[in-house]
Amino acid sequence: MNVEINDLSPVKKKITVKISKEEVSAKINQELLEIAKKAKIKGFRQGKAPMSLVEKLYLDEARRKFADKSVNESLLEVINKNNIDVAVRPMIEKEEFNADGFVFEAVVETHPVIKLEKYKGFEFKKPKVTADEGEIEAKISEMKEKHIEYEEVPEDITASHEHVVSFDVLNYNLEGKEQGQSLNQEVDLSKDTVFKEIKEAILGLKKSNEKEFSFVYPEDIENEKLRGKEAKLKIKINAIKKKKLLTDDELIKKIGKDSIESLKNEISAAIIGSKQKDVDAKFKKEVFDKIYSENPFEIPEGLKNEVAFEMLQSFVKSIEQAGLDPNKMGFEWDKIFESYKAQAEDFLKRQYIIKAVKIAENIDVSDEELNSLINAMVEKSYNKEKLLEYYNRPEAKRNIYLKEIENKVFDFLVTNNTVLEE
Fold it and tell me: What percent of the chain has pLDDT over 70?
């Protein structure tokens, strides 16, 4: 076997393997002998047909079996012998029988060899997270909105933008066809989600008023069957209600808090916590992006595609679990895949850098640390026995180990670089 290895890029190699015609002939004959033992040929008992006939009938099959075995076995031997760090499944670009025997070519993508020369001593700026009074008051207003109460206005009051109106649809006609009645409908006239024509028809009416009006459904309405169709409605107003927002004291009593100050403190902490997650995520990306820019390396294209495809599969699965058909949602799959591919590239950059820093700085997680992490997570669970069994599975344990390695590496990078809060 003659082997030639050429570098196409830092993460791609072309392997050419040539097998002599003598070896090819011998191995194909071996395949034919194996086929002959099982071949059922008319006029002969199983395994008793002459080899000349077996060769005539099964030579193509024998050659195919030889090619498959030779490619798989030879490629594995070459990879192991030359310590090639394969990233994704090799691509076979050529298989050919010729006068000299058999030749095949494979393109193998490899993991990059990363030499981090500079990953300490940088300066980063990280925003300091706060919650201002306006944000806190906005959250309190949302809470009051959720616990809102309604009181019916006097009968001589007309419906305005501040009101919630309940009404009966006495008659509903769609494109000239009667659709029947619909009782006890309700619309909040302060919301923009209400059809403009329905809102305008109701505004100015009083309790017990009736009104007929028509409108055309917009082309972007979710229900495709209604798009562009004309509807005629006759409605009767049942009640006009005014929102009654809770006072601060009423709110804290409703939700069981000690005081408005303690509620504001809770809201402030929640806002800061939410913002902090975003800031931390952006900061972590900035750190790894900086290290990558100072120590660039190539990422295997096939590996990016594999990770992006896994992300896409997860996205599709989440849609299907919601009871929806992803093929009927008008997605531009090419654009979605490219978006995931960009995310995959960021993910792989980070993982390669983490591995390189781990090795360079001898960072690891001991069994004792790992078990301590698992026990801490289990203690927070109601079903401790079941969760402990899950976390002790090799794959789950490996995931916890990798996450803690990432945490330790990032802590090391933060410690060994300057971080200015502003």
Answer: 100
